[in-house]
Structure formats: C-alpha cells, structure tokens
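So, is this right?
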Amino acid sequence: MAELHESIFIDRSPLEVHQFVIDNVAMWQANVMEYELLSEKPEKGARFKIIHKVVGRKVESEGEYTELELGSHDGLRSLKAPVEWTLNRTYEPSGTGTMLTYHMNVGSLGSAASGGDRLVQAASAV
C-alpha cells in the first residue's frame, strides 16, 4: 500500500477552494481523463465515475464521497476499482487563504499496471 500526504497554500477562501476542487476534477488532477458525478450533487454518499491514466494505461473506477462538509473537509473511497484507494482532504483557513491538505492511501496496483508496483518501489528507494 502506498500513502501520500501533501499540503498546499491557496490564496482563496476555504469555500472557494473546496468548490473548485469538487467542480473541476479533470482540470486540476493531471492524470484524470474523465470524471462524471453519478449522483445529483456532491454530498455524503454521492457516487462518481473516474478514468485515470496510470503508468500509461486507462484505469476506470467508481467511488463515493464518504463525507463532505463544504469549505471544511471531504472524504472519498473507491467502490469498483482495480486498485482500492481512500482520500481525505481538509480545507483550513490560513492567513489570507486556505491550507489544502490531502491524505491518500492506495492499494497494490496488481493487474492494473504490469510491473507498476516494482516501478513505485524503485522510485521510492531513490
């Protein structure tokens, strides 16, 4: 399992940042080819379909929001996916803007990317 934890300061309010993040997934996330909200609106329990490009391959999955409080935090997890993952993000006021922090856990790449696990392990060792 791989774990990613990152924070970035954005000079906008937490509400503005959060709204942008959930409304523009394919714009700000470079490896997302397509994103479709399958529910009426983003909220706890809402489902979505997402297609990523991972190690040169198209990987399709469905996920859901496990929690969502606009301007504060959200949580997402995979439901139907070749790779299990969870993502938690917080949007905290910081000076004139927002500190966006995300924490992601990703399971083994398995058959989704032949040799991908070895590639990740080798890159991590550098």
Residues 112-126 have pLDDT under 50 and may be disordered.
